[in-house]
Each structure stands twice: as C-alpha cells, then as structure tokens.
Write a structure and sequence with these properties.
It is built from 6 helices and no strands. The protein is mostly helical and 131 residues long. The protein has one domain. The longest helix has 23 residues. It binds zinc ion.
Length: 131
Amino acid sequence: MKLMGTEGELAGVLGHEIGHVVARHAAEHLAKAQLTEGLTGAAVLVTYDPDDPSSQRTAAVAALIGNLINMKFSRDDELEADRLGVRFTSEAGYDPRAMISMMETLAQASKGQRPLEFFSTHPNPDFKPAK
Ligand SMILES: [Zn+2]
C-alpha cells in the first residue's frame, strides 16, 4: 500500500484480486493443490527410505516441486482477473488506467532488488493503452 500513488491504483490491485475471487480461481487452484499434494505425498513415500538418511533430501525436493507448481495462478487466470479488475475499478468510479501506472510503479519498485512478492505470482502483463 505504501507504493500506491493514488486510490485508483489501490482500487486496481483490489479489483484484480477480487476478480480472482469472483472467477473462483482459488477453488480451481485448491482442487489442483489437493491433486498435487496427493501426487507429491506419493512421491515422498516412494523415495523416502528410513534406513537411508540421504533419501530425505529427495523427498524434500519432491515436496518443493509440489510447492512451485502451486505458486501461481495460470496466465489465463491472470488475464481474466485483469479483465474483471478493469471492470470493477471503473464500476467503482475509478479510472481503470490506474492499473497501468500501478504495474509501472510495482515494476519500478522491483528493480535492482529481489522481485516484489506480487510479481512472483502476477507477472506484469505489459499492456499498452489502446489508441
Ligand atoms: Zn492475479
């Protein structure tokens, strides 16, 4: 919130996140997470040998891969959340173009340091305003 220059930019972020909720991405995500958890659990059981301490590392890698798979919404989910976010932002009386300056602000803040958490799950769509 400290990075947001205007109320409209904050509305853009919230609109995008509400878009994920309205489009039920989390529910789809959770279903996928449970499937991955089941598969990862099976991989851990298969690779872990109590008599071999090094097998614990293989099991840990299997768990890590499971987490990585679940880290992001899909690009389609992000595009849908962006579309809904633009709609909600404008319906709430804000200029939806604030989402563009919000993305620019976040991109600027991510330079030269570790990427902001938002960008690890929400890559900058790099959209340009239509003429
Ligand atoms: Zn998103």
